[in-house]
Amino acid sequence: MNQQTLFQTPPLSLYIHIPWCVRKCPYCDFNSHEAGKEFDESAYITALMSDLDQELVGNQHREIKSIFFGGGTPSLFSAESINNIIEGVRSKVSLTPDIEITLEANPGTFEQQKFADYRSAGVNRLSIGVQSFNDDKLHRLGRIHDGKEAIKAIESAYAAGFDNINLDLMFGLPGQSVTEAIEDVELACKLQPSHVSHYQLTIESNTYFHKHTPALPATDFIWDMQQHCHDTLNKHDYIQYEVSAFSQAGEQCQHNMNYWTFGDYIGIGAGAHGKLTDINKPSIQRRWKQRQPAAYIKHAAWGNSCSGVSELDQSDILFEFLLNALRLRQGFSYELFEQRTGIKKQRLLEACNNIDPDLLVISETELNTSPRGFDFLNDVLENFLVSVQ
């Protein structure tokens, strides 16, 4: 990489992984573990702070623009523990005045009782894993809440003072009809969250569903579900700004926007991943942590929580930028591309030569997918992968 002058230091976010759940869902391929004897909040917080110290070497001068507690089920942690983590972060690095702090939560009654305390601790955005309001579909997904609890959780979040709430919904569920998928979205819209994440259920390796695959709706039905659900969200003034993300005006998830625009992020916690740019070398690194909670806690205490580091070459950087930025409806400017990658736009335009022109919109200042290209984004990215190698 020799275009050092193009680089600008990108914004920095912090991802905090809480790896425990009450019960592992059969479709989940995230690094999560059923809470048992290893579930020790105090020891884990100590490990997180040690991990953060290691990650901040050379980055202490940078502000954190967003914090995201993901999992697992972060809402298994007490509000006091979440507060201690946030205050620990604040003592080590500057946070922007308008920082977005998101915590993922399950709709269960146990978690709902802590919502107000999470808000007092500094969490200002709640992401609730509803998945469906249909009791039969929730049972098939192995969820431990029902539809009434999901509605109650959203009401509890409002009562606790949250005005920035995301609902996770899934479609293409076992036995789900198009009508049932639309009913889930309609009910979500009536509850008026600021943001809806709408995902298709996919069968991932290393999951129970991969070994015991349930009967899923036919591909044509899943396509109809997606189109009708997207139309419903649009009808209720939810704007699709990313492949799976819809928000009310001005309510995009800032943490995820930093991912999609190829910003930097520190990842702390068992199995967490991070991306850091050094414009002085210049280089971009991917970093990841020990996956098993016990091993993570032990290695963090030893000062080596990082399990692996990979420095990206130019082809990796180009493709990973596209993998993220083309998820956005708005596409991206060449200026942003050069600032975040250190690569001249000509290299990008050369990679576009082998892509079906009907799938891209190439202007003098920016690159975007066409409506058809956005619908078939995987095909676009596969072609780019071939072009940049």
Task: Draw up the topology in text.
Elements: E1 12-18, E2 20-21, E3 33-34, H1 41-55, E4 64-71, H2 79-92, E5 95-105, H3 109-112, H4 115-121, E6 125-131, H5 135-140, H6 147-159, E7 165-171, H7 178-190, E8 195-200, H8 208-211, H9 219-235, E9 239-242, E10 245-247, H10 254-260, E11 264-268, E12 273-278, E13 283-289, H11 293-302, E14 306-311, H12 314-325, E15 332-333, H13 334-341, H14 345-352, E16 360-362, E17 366-369, H15 371-375, H16 377-388
Parallel strand pairs: 1-4, 1-11, 2-3, 4-5, 5-6, 6-7, 7-8
Antiparallel strand pairs: 8-10, 9-10, 12-13, 13-14, 15-17, 16-17
Structure in words:
- By secondary structure, the protein is α/β, with parallel strands linked by helices.
- It folds into two domains: 4-258, Aldolase class I (TIM Barrel, Alpha-Beta Barrel), CATH 3.20.20; 314-389, Arc Repressor Mutant, subunit A, CATH 1.10.10.
- Helix content is 40%, strand content 23%.
- The chain has helices spanning 41-55, 79-92, 109-112, 115-121, 135-140, 147-159, 178-190, 208-211, 219-235, 254-260, 293-302, 314-325, 334-341, 345-352, 371-375, 377-388; strands at residues 12-18, 20-21, 33-34, 64-71, 95-105, 125-131, 165-171, 195-200, 239-242, 245-247, 264-268, 273-278, 283-289, 306-311, 332-333, 360-362, 366-369.
- α1 packs parallel to α2.
- The chain is globular, with a radius of gyration of 21 Å.
